[in-house]
Amino acid sequence: MVAETFTAAAAQVEPVYHDKEATLEKTCQWIERAGTRDVDVLVFPETYFPGYPYWRGCSISRWSELVVELQKNSLSVGDDALEIIGETIDEANLHVVLGTNELSERPGSETLYNSLFYFDRSGELVRRHRKLMPTHGERAIWGRGDPSTLDTHDTDIGRMGGLICYENHMTLSKGALAAMGEEIHPAVWHGFWEQHGHPGNKTKATDREAIETCDQYPAMRQYAFETQSFVISSSAYVSDEMLDSVSEEVGLNIAAGGSMLVNPAGIVKAGPVLNEEALLTAEFDRDERRATKAYFDAMGHYTRWDAVNLNVRNTDLEPLESDDARVDRASPAAPSPAAIEEIATEHDLSIETVESVVDSIHSR
């Protein structure tokens, strides 16, 4: 049974930048804090662990040093740190969505990904999502995510999806999650900004007037309304002092926070909170979703799949493939006995002749 009400929270908390052990300790502290407030699902910001690369525009030599630091302090699916996080989650009894720099587990690879790790109430890592397309200068930091990680999963509070930063502007990806039945949408960002004419000209938000130009604010309200999802938007806050402790070459400091919680009618129930750490919470009721769907159901009476539909590829990207796998994928499936009989009748042939032709095709 899916709960009729639940408490959602955004952990707008700064990491201990590029420090895996200290960030792990702080992560567990905030999970424990959320547990004492009876939170059902807690979402950490984009690449919270161990920090977003605001230094991405620095000199090449310094960039190389910082990427190596990031590799050493990021998480992978087989990391012992996940067991510690899982034990803390189990004690706190809540779902956690953790924004992290993810180090590839593929043998021989040191590639990083911008990822979400999803933990259930028992602390088990149930799935991950890798950002499909790193934005702008991020392409020099992270690899592109596997299409197979664009997905949803069921929980005791609803079906959960989630996207990272500008993925929340990707029309077809949003449509895919809606078609998968998404009900709860964690959206993670690396800050909140004032936009000056176009996305390439932005500065750190200083007050709530930034909602007039920050594309994130209307995007979260629209996402909630157009998909009738509960949106948990968790945005990164990092103090200037923390950033300065890592690099003097911070070229993109927009780490102002800006987390907010939005109901399926697009109504902001909490936030945005700017320029401070915060555990932002809101109570959600499934009737808020039902009432919006009664008016505009994106997966029911307000759809026309006969006019417009979507093809989603569930593909893992692999560097090696066996000859057998290639043959299996290239070969057509053998026709059924009923189909063979139909072909034989249509062309006035014996069933044995058709079977012989089919066998000959597959043997080649």
Automatic annotation (TrEMBL):
<dbReference type="GO" id="GO:0003824">
    <property type="term" value="F:catalytic activity"/>
</dbReference>
<dbReference type="InterPro" id="IPR044149">
    <property type="entry name" value="Nitrilases_CHs"/>
</dbReference>
<comment type="similarity">
    <text>Belongs to the carbon-nitrogen hydrolase superfamily. Nitrilase family.</text>
</comment>
<dbReference type="Pfam" id="PF00795">
    <property type="entry name" value="CN_hydrolase"/>
</dbReference>
<feature type="domain" description="CN hydrolase">
    <location>
        <begin position="6"/>
        <end position="286"/>
    </location>
</feature>
<protein>
    <submittedName>
        <fullName>Nitrilase</fullName>
    </submittedName>
</protein>
<dbReference type="InterPro" id="IPR036526">
    <property type="entry name" value="C-N_Hydrolase_sf"/>
</dbReference>
<dbReference type="InterPro" id="IPR003010">
    <property type="entry name" value="C-N_Hydrolase"/>
</dbReference>
